[in-house]
Design goal:
By secondary structure, the protein is an alpha+beta fold. The chain contains 18 helices and 27 strands. Strand 6 and strand 7 form a beta hairpin. It is globular and about 90 Å long. The structure holds zinc ion (ZN) (2 copies). One zinc ion binds next to helix 1. One zinc ion binds next to strand 15.
Length: 570
């Protein structure tokens, strides 16, 4: 039978119990806390007597395998809270967990003589947990709260088969080699500073790439009739109360008080866009109205989850909102799917998985409205000839959505591209338009993000291309390397012609030897090097050296421009 994501989660959570079991056998004075499954595996947070070190992991892992081989059945039973409190009388974490559970009983999971407080969801026996690997130790805090007890986290992963585990480990090694944080430093693209934890600083070359991504999106906006707007970074907290962010997202927002009025820094751009929609009466003739914004948003994340540009506290979204009628959803989404697929293809993301998320239990809006909107999304996907899966009940409570998941060159999956239908905000903000019959009607909102976060997309690209961005996206596309000073004048002439043709070019006329000039350009991943010697200057031609080591000698400058133009994406 095919294993589902949920089966994998159950396996990994069971492996978390296994590491706890092994740790208790080896270090009996350790206090247990919690051990959930994660996206890539699992972790368990401990309060040990001593600090765990990387060197301890092989011993713990060995004991895990031993317990796996003992093949204990994993049982689950409900016990009274009173009994549980006795069992954990000297473990304050478990006591706090017991108090937090509703009802009179709590679950207890046991294997051999090891038991752990747990609501359940495990494999049948420890024998099924043979393909496990411990990956790291890290510091953590109880309840992820810095003011609370410091804990020790052991991070690991588990798979159903040895092959799956080995594939994962190979991929992980590869990914570490091309970590975007490493590439960012090597290529001088961005940095982070203590003065702004989680807020990226973009250096000239990094900013250049971001600008190209933005300009490409602007080109698509123009082509498909989007209009760009810009809304303030800071808005009154009344707005965030009305939008529901205050109730649901307050802990991730930054606030300030000015002239005794409370403001919040925007975590999303939607409410600002809505105020523009509401700035005057709207007619059906204006719909669909497509307002796009490159909105810089701030979201407070726990410091433990920050990860280079992949997880930051401030980022730019390529956000857009389509205001339309229910009947227009299908047409709009069909176009949008085409835009997303075409864009992803440009970056070489051909393997795209698409999921349509449907009505969850606690949904707002009538069943009829949901049916119509969900059918519109599904028809749009069919119009665009897309294969897709249905994520039953996984939609947001305010509308169905489509998500695009890409696979990068190292086989990792990333969600890029979201189309979210929204019935809630038009209600909350009382959005209306005048229909052809003169009646006031409620529009639907569609939220779209294609790159999602520009910063995150940049990080994905850097790792996907292993630092070697395609020609059209490279901050410096061409570097002219002179062999001696006597070619300086010719180099300037070539530079002027290339610049006139919109190419990003620079000259290395330093006193370095030509070989070290080539080496530097290669390290900086500059796609084309033009090597100029006296022979080229005399013949008024150029020699090009590509990053892969291939060379072309004696080309006319016009030919080179033609060649570059062929690589243009927009
Ligand atoms: Zn459990
Ligand atoms: Zn939005």
């Amino acid at each position: 039978m095919k294993k589902t994501d949920n089966d994998l989660k159950i396996l990994r959570h069971s492996a978390a119990h296994l590491v706890a079991h092994a740790v208790l056998e080896l270090y009996p004075d350790t206090k247990l806390t919690i051990g959930p499954a994660t996206e890539e595996g699992f972790f368990y947070d401990f309060l040990p007597k001593q600090t765990f070190k990387e060197e301890d992991l092989p011993k713990i892992e060995e004991r895990m395998l031993e317990i796996a081989n003992r093949n204990y059945p994993i049982t689950h039973r409900e016990i009274s809270k009173e009994e549980a409190r006795k069992l954990y009388h000297n473990n304050p974490f478990k006591l706090e967990l017991i108090d937090g559970i509703e009802g009179d009983t709590v679950g207890l999971s046991c294997q051999g003589d090891f038991c752990d407080l747990c609501r359940g969801g495990h494999v049948e026996s420890t024998g099924q947990l043979k393909h496990v690997k411990l990956l790291a130790v890290a510091g953590s805090y109880w309840r992820a709260d810095r003011t609370k007890q410091a804990l020790q986290r052991i991070i690991g992963t588990a798979f159903f088969t040895e092959k799956e585990l080995n594939d994962f480990l190979t991929q992980r090694e590869e990914a570490a080699k091309y970590d975007h944080r490493k590439i960012g430093k090597q290529l001088d693209l961005f940095s982070f500073h203590e003065e702004g934890p989680g807020f990226p600083f973009f250096h000239p070359r990094g900013k250049k790439v971001l600008n190209i991504l933005v300009n490409y999106m602007r080109h698509l906006h123009d082509k498909y009739n989007y209009q760009e707007v810009s809304t303030p970074t800071m808005l009154s907290d009344e707005l965030w109360k009305r939008s529901g962010h205050y109730a649901h997202y307050k802990n991730n927002m930054y606030f300030c008080t000015i002239d005794e009025r409370n403001f919040a820094i925007k975590p999303m751009n939607c409410p600002g866009s809505i105020l523009i929609y509401k700035s005057r009466p709207r007619s059906y003739r204006e719909l669909p109205l497509k307002l796009a914004e490159f909105g810089h948003v701030h979201r407070h994340e726990l410091s433990g989850v920050l990860h280079g540009l992949l997880r930051v506290r401030a980022f730019t979204q390529d956000d857009a909102h389509i205001y339309c009628t229910v009947n227009q959803i299908e047409q709009e989404v069909t176009t949008l799917i085409k835009i997303i697929k075409d864009l992803l293809k440009v970056f070489g993301f051909d393997n795209i998985q698409i999921a349509l998320s449907t009505r969850p239990e606690n949904a707002m809006g009538s069943q009829e409205l949901w049916n119509t909107a969900t059918a519109a999304l599904s028809d749009a996907l069919k119009n665009a000839k897309c294969e897709f899966t249905i994520a039953e009940g996984e939609g947001a409570f305010y509308g169905p959505k489509i998500e695009f998941v890409i696979q990068d060159s190292m086989g990792r999956s990333w969600t890029c591209g979201t189309i979210q239908v929204d019935f809630m905000n038009p209600e909350n903000f009382d959005l209306t338009y005048t229909s052809s019959a003169g009646t006031k009607e409620r529009p639907v909102m569609i939220h779209q993000a294609i790159y999602g976060s520009l910063e995150r997309f940049f990080a994905i690209l850097l790792e996907h291309f292993k630092g070697q961005l395609p020609f059209w996206l490279s901050p410096t596309q061409i570097r002219i390397l002179t062999i001696s000073d006597s070619q300086n004048e010719y180099a300037k002439k070539i530079e002027a012609i290339l610049k006139e043709n919109g190419l990003r070019v620079e000259i290395d006329d330093s006193s370095d030897q030509i070989n070290s000039k080539i080496k530097n350009a290669q390290l900086e991943k500059i796609p084309w090097m033009i090597v100029l010697g006296q022979k080229e200057a005399d013949a008024q031609t150029v020699s090009v050296r590509y990053l892969d080591g291939k060379q072309k000698m004696g080309i006319k400058i016009e030919e080179l421009v033609d060649q570059a133009n062929k690589l243009k994406v927009f």
